[in-house]
Amino acid sequence: MSAPVVDVRDMRVWYAGPSGPVQAVDGVTFALRQGEVLGLVGESGSGKSTLGRGLMGLVPRGAAIDGSIEFDGRDLLSLPKKERGRVRGAGMGLIFQEPMTRLDPLMKVSKHFTEVLKVHEPKLSKDEARIRALDALRSLGIPPTRYDNYPHEFSGGMRQRIMIALALVLRPKFIVADEPTTALDVLVEAQILRILADIRERYAPAILLITHNLGIVAEACDRVAVMYAGRIVEQGPVRDIFATPRHPYTRALLNSTISLSTRELHSIPGAPPDLVRPPTACRFHPRCEHVMRVCADVFPPTVRVDRQEAECWLLATDRIDAAGRAPLSRQEVPVADEA
Ligand SMILES: Nc1ncnc2c1ncn2[C@@H]1O[C@H](COP(=O)(O)OP(=O)(O)OP(=O)(O)O)[C@@H](O)[C@H]1O
Ligand code: SF4
Ligand SMILES: [Mg+2]
To answer: pTM here?
Structure first.
């Protein structure tokens, strides 16, 4: 099997918050190979975008990042800042949400492309650069005749697609696709699926696809990672996880969507945790219907079951004594503030 393009171990991201650091990503480990699409799902606020942006080096001022992020065999966080930026700029792309570049209203679209190519692929001739740019634009449905237009001559949706083409023109080996969630976004599910299928067919990069839409996961992803309160609580092949979810949160997430025709994620009973003072041990224990004494006391182990991995004590009851297995009543579950 080929070496992973992206190999992330124990990644953490903290934001500075008024009442203490916000542990938005809290020890995440996963790997992605060339051509693989990993869907990242979880409730709003679980840290998906923070993870995606952290991989790209886009954490805001005041935030801290730690762990290991290997890209193409190099540990990014231990590279000098300038070199890290260069590796990311040439090899990684962020699409759909908050692109790494914005269109400059005073610059023709063509100039945006030639500038990017000049920096990262200086050996390309002018003609070659033009061909590459037109090819990227065409794959996003922008006709070559519009190459020399200015940004304001395009609709919002077209501008968004131009920015995606700009992120793809260097054919990054790794793409983070953070699905748009606001009403202002113009890309719909069918367009997202078409763009992803097109990218895969052209040059099969590794893709981390962040989405609230399990229909998109089923359609476009090979594997799925389920995030809860800054941690990946379960990951594995989409088919296996949809058929036999092993973690109670994954089950709740899938159940909460089944009856809904929209296939959007809807809320699960109980509130998402406070990431400044997260619940002790298993972050899901205040909302879990299977909660046991051990769940609030000791961090659950990551257990492999067939091709899936989940962190839950239910999968390791042989490692708990009878006292630890005693169910916790609702009244006994510690609340986050007491942790
Ligand atoms: N710049 C910031 N400063 C402080 N806290 C932040 C910042 N950005 C995000 N957070 C907090 O970090 C946590 C994770 O946020 P993030 O945006 O990564 O979640 P998400 O899973 O992408 O959510 P959504 O599904 O709504 O896009 C949330 O508690 C959020 O409030
Ligand atoms: S470790 Fe315990 S509380 Fe956490 S998901 Fe598993 S059973 Fe529920
Ligand atoms: Mg997000």
So the answer is: 0.93
